[in-house]
Amino acid sequence: xxxxxxxxxxxxxxxxxxxxxxxxxxxxxxxxxxxxxxxxxxxxxxxxxxxxxxxxxxxxxxxxxxxxxxxxxxxxxxxxxxxxxxxxxxxxxxxxxxxxxxxxxxxxxxxxxxxxxxxxxxxxxxxxxxxxxxxxxxxxxxxxxxxxxxxxxxxxxxxxxxxxxxxxxxxxxxxxxxxxxxxxxxxxxxxxxxxxxxxxxxxxxxxxxxxxxxxxxxxxxxxxxxxxxxxxxxxxxxxxxxxxxxxxxxxxxxxxxxxxxxxxxxxxxxxxxxxxxxxxxxxxxxxxxxxxxxxxxxxxxxxxxxxxxxxxxxxxxxxxxxxxxxxxxxxxxxxxxxxxxxxxxxxxxxxxxxxxxxxxxxxxxxxxxxxxxxxxxxxxxxxxxxxxxxxxxxxxxxxxxxxxxxxxxxxxxxxxxxxxxxxxxxxxxxxxxxxxxxxxxxxxxxxxxxxxxxxxxxxxxxxxxxxxxxxxxxxxxxxxxxxxxxxxxxxxxxxxxxxxxxxxxxxxxxxxxxxxxxxxxxxxxxxxxxxxxxxxxxxxxxxxxxxxxxxxxxxxxxxxxxxxxxxxxxxxxxxxxxxxxxxxxxxxxxxxxxxxxxxxxxxxxxxxxxxxxxxxxxxxxxxxxxxxxxxxxxxxxxxxxxxxxxxxxxxxxxxxxxxxxxxxxxxxxxxxxxxxxxxx
Length: 680
Known about the structure:
Layout: H1 26-48, H2 56-64, H3 68-83, H4 87-108, H5 111-122, H6 124-127, H7 131-146, H8 153-183, E1 186-188, H9 198-210, E2 216-218, H10 222-231, H11 235-246, H12 258-274, H13 280-285, H14 293-325, H15 334-349, H16 353-356, H17 362-377, E3 380-383, E4 395-400, E5 406-413, E6 425-430, E7 433-435, E8 438-440, E9 443-447, H18 463-480, H19 501-507, H20 513-516, H21 531-539, H22 545-563, H23 573-580, H24 600-603, H25 613-631, H26 636-647, H27 655-663, H28 670-675
Parallel strand pairs: 5-9
Antiparallel strand pairs: 1-2, 3-4, 4-5, 6-9, 7-8
């Protein structure tokens, strides 16, 4: 292939320099990556061979700006590996990942380059760098040290080998999980779907049709799995689907992740030991707000103490409901929890999730979430069909600031498909940075797996999906409002236990009447959502909140159990897992199930030794939102302060400094306990 036909190697010539998805083919990635690596190597050589003494500009800033082409290609490739992958892309990932890892290792273990960085770092007091410059120097030096630059001889080669193996294993873990999820389908008759709402039945019929089947097909995608567990009257079928979901990647086939989990936790531990840390958690937490494992356990223990008694009461209420409906000896199992919880919720609040759906039509929800950002921050959104997208489901928006200046590009991608991994996430196709006085604005994407439109009906969301939208949109605001000099500190490039604050604070609006009343209208009649239904949403917002908290705590405990290990693990993964989270478990354990083999957050994502971050950030978001509650939920002064002190700053300062500047105090757990009704 000639280089000039490769869209990555030409100027994009698109509006706002957005990725030319309409021109990109799988064959373009590898040659562009190879050229990108070669170019970055040349840029590194220029830094290393510079006869002038090392300075902040000729070494630190030059390194920050190196690798632009490689970054451009790998960003698109890695994002589409999650959002729109294919067998060809996965094969290429297997081939290219070791080369990319080797390239990265060659930079971080380059002795001459590190010598220059160290020389600048050792002059830091006399250089009198301030703000972002000082932060960039510190981050660069720390980054090299944490990637093995101080290692010598055999240790350096061991680090290189382990790093390569780690990247290959995380890739294989994710691919196995996606393939295992896509592999499962259960085709049923209408008779077997008793109890399920019309929206779910339509979804199953459409899935069957897409797969060329007669009847109704259930899959393990969230819009399929969640309603099945919540509404299906047939207990044996619920058990069957639950077991399919919770035994993914444990079967005797090529998608089994059990040995991969052992290797991942052992390699991470070995890397930490090489770098002088006693555990992988200690290594990771050095660059977190929590700072130590004991601080993480302190938070998890505080939550256990505060929520456990309420959680047991919640369990007993659901058990009583089940025994009343079935028989007095009924044993509540995990595949019963969602089903009988929903029945109890209906009785207590007369609130059926399904009766909310007609009021949460996706395009209206989208408009209202955008409208919330307009009301708080003055920004506006305009769809632009000239901006290329990577799938027909995806929309691209130009985002404009209060003064009508261009702020960002936002892509939205809402529905499941075979090439898309489960879950919901925000990502960037281009970070924000400043160069020669020009503010280069970001391109941000929110990706979900919401219920699809069905025949004659638009996409109608559950209340939980509205929450998810607000959450990911909060991350998007963090990306879109970025205003930093360096891309490596832009947007969501913050400490991992701070990154969920901007997303989780947005979820608070979902249970605010003032917000719900701005958009919740029946998709057929246009009637606004009845006031009593809104009140039911508010009343039910803390239903089973303690159970949900302990579920998150259990995941945090499992994560910490894997990454506070000091010795090689070669025992039974299931047994270890069940012991790790035992004190937060409320329902009977099911022997065959295993979470670790599909817990992509901590095994293949960025949350290893970091899953506690969700609860850490929940303490922050409850505390921060209490200021909005005090001053008015649409208060523009509070919003402007949140934008100025948190959303626009990225990783330019320590998060606690930023938080206190916004809030005027350190956060406490009190606001969260109050919001959840655990304390007055």
